[in-house]
Every structure is written in C-alpha cells, then in structure tokens.
Specification:
- By secondary structure, the chain is α+β, with helices and mostly antiparallel strands.
- The chain contains 5 helices and 11 strands, in the order ααβββββββββββααα.
- Strands 1, 3, 4, 5, 6 and 7 form a 6-stranded antiparallel β-sheet that branches. Strands 2-11-8 form a 3-stranded mixed β-sheet, with no helix packed on it. Strands 9-10 form a two-stranded antiparallel ribbon.
- A hairpin with a 5-residue loop joins β6 and β7.
- The radius of gyration is 52 Å and the shape is elongated.
Length: 242
C-alpha cells in the first residue's frame, strides 16, 4: 500500500470515530461595574432609628375658622433621652407663611423635660387665613443635631385648616347684590359745631384785645418820653448870650 493510500485510510478512520468537540467559546471578561452587586438605594431620611426615635406632633384648633380669624398651632418635638442631643434643634424659618396660611407670630421654642427623661421642644404659631376652603400645611423639617449627626424630623403630612366664608351659602347668597350709590345727605349741625365756633370766637376776641392793649401801651410810652425831653431856650436869650 502506497503512502498516499495509508493517509486516506487514517483520515477516513478519524471521520468515522467522530470529529473532536469544538472548543468552548471564550467568555468575554466581565466588566468591573457589572461584577459588583447593585448598590441599595439610600434609606429615607428619618429622625432617628431604634429606641431613640423622635416624634413631631402638631395641635391645631378644633373650632371652625372664618376668613381673617387667627388660630394658634403648637408644634411639639419629642426627643427621647437615648437620642443624645448634641445641640438645640433648629425649627423652620417660617418667613411669614406656612403653606397657604399666614404666620402672624412665632414664639421661641421652649424646652421641657418629661418624667421618662425625654426632652420636649414646643413652638407656638399664630396663623391667619384670608380665603375660604381647605388650606394645606405642608410638612416642615426640624433639624435635630444628634451625636451621630444632624437628622431631619418632619411635621405630619396631611395637615390643613378648614376656613369657611362669612357670606351665606345657598339661595341667600344669590340675593346679595351691590346697592346703588346713595345721594348726598345734609348732615345736621350738632352741639360740637357750636362749641367749636364759640371757642374760636373767644380766642379771636382775646387776640384782638391783646393787640389793642399793646398798641395803647406803646402810645403812652412814646408820650412820656416826649414830656421828659428838655425844651430849647428862647431865641432872643441865645442872641444876647452870643
């Protein structure tokens, strides 16, 4: 058997036994960013965690308000003893308004201590509203400095003032129409007018009398000065003396 035939048989045996498995594809190197697990979103800002959680409550007036009424709102911040305050909390800078309500007055926060050792800060606001309806009081942040850092404590969400109109509602409101301008009316002269006229007349008479007395005094003073002045000697005596 020639050498070429032997090579053919060897090749045929290899096809019969099966070709070698194809090499596994080389996986692309993973990106360093893809290899890291996705970072968890940062937790929501809270006043504290664990047993030392602070709480904020707001007390609003229970009575019904009308347009222009003033209402007192009390904000209370409770900080347990376990929170370990590092300084005084900083209440919001209201700048004359809380949402749609006008802040007429804001008192300085007051500090008190409860029986369980918790520290309570209260601030009193005087609010006023000038349009009827539901006035939203959005959440406001109070900065609380703790040992681990400053955190934010928020007033409760959903606070609102219900303000009703002073005008009647329903069918009675339809009857309200502006009145036409009334004609001019002559007002009667009261006692105050005559008293004022008498006082002014007396003051004018007193002024005229004072001026007359002053003029008479000047005339009498001028006459007395003329009488004291010495008379000139007769002309013949003067010539004889010369």
């Amino acid at each position: 058997m020639s050498l070429s035939v032997a090579r053919f048989f060897v090749l045929l045996c290899g096809v019969a036994t099966g070709l070698p498995a194809a090499p596994a594809p080389i996986a692309a190197p993973a990106s360093p960013l893809a290899a890291r697990p996705a970072a968890a979103p940062p937790p929501a800002t809270a006043a504290c965690r664990g047993a030392g959680c602070t709480s904020v409550t707001v007390t609003l007036p229970a009575r019904a308000l009308t347009v222009g009424d003033q209402a007192a709102a009390v904000i209370a911040l409770r900080v347990p003893a376990a929170a370990r305050l590092a300084g005084e909390p900083r209440f919001p800078a209201w700048r004359g308004a809380w949402g749609e309500a006008e802040v007429r007055r804001e008192d300085e926060p007051r500090r008190s201590t409860g029986p369980d050792g918790a520290v309570v800060y209260t601030q009193r606001l005087v609010l006023a509203a000038f349009h009827p309806g539901k006035l939203e009081l959005p959440p406001a942040a109070i900065a609380v400095p703790l040992g681990a850092g400053t955190v934010q404590a928020w007033t409760p969400a959903g606070l609102a003032l219900a303000v009703r109109s002073v005008l009647p509602a329903g069918a009675a409101a339809k009857d309200l129409r502006p009145k036409p301008p009334a004609p001019l009316r002559q007002l009667p002269l009261g006692a105050a007018f005559f008293w004022t006229l008498a006082i002014l007349a007396a003051a004018a008479a007193a002024g005229i009398w004072a001026l007359w007395r002053r003029a008479r005094r000047r005339q009498s003073t001028a006459g007395a000065a003329a009488a004291v002045r010495p008379l000139l000697a007769p002309l013949p005596e003067l010539l004889a003396a010369l």
